[in-house]
Amino acid sequence: MSDNWTARRIRTTVIGKGKKFNGSWEGEIDVGSDPEVHNITLDQIITISNEKAPDLTGKNVKARSLEVMGTCVSMRCHIEGIRAKEFITKVKAGEYDDKFS
């Protein structure tokens, strides 16, 4: 069974802001209800994607970051105050290309 290090890193980044986390998925049912608490920045996502580069399949920073953003979707956390699915469509449309260069 593979260890989902990316999800653990996002949990530490997002929920580690004064929230207690016991490591169980049951504790994350209400994640996403408050975008100010469960929020991650694009810079943090880029940092995570650079740290996980050998384990991710994307060819460039943008593709690897999209993989990390997909983990944010399943964890129901926000990116820059926007729901992860909406943020991914904006990234694919090219609105944040200057951050990935």
Question: What can be said about this structure in brief?
Answer:
The longest helix has 15 residues, at 61-75.
Account of the 3D structure:
- The protein is mainly alpha-helical and 101 residues long.
- It is 46% helix and 6% strand.
- It has four helices and three strands, in the order αβααββα.
- The longest helix has 15 residues, at 61-75.
- It is globular and about 35 Å long.
Sketch the major β-sheet. 3 strands, mixed
Helix content: 40-55%
CATH fold type: Arc Repressor Mutant, subunit A
State the order of secondary-structure elements, H for helix, E for strand.
HEHHEEH
Roughly what is the average pLDDT, rounded to an integer? 78
CATH superfamily: Ribosomal protein L11/L12, C-terminal domain
Continuous helix count? 4
Number of strands: 3
Q: What's the number of domains? A: 1
CATH class: Mainly Alpha
Note poorly predicted spans: 15-27
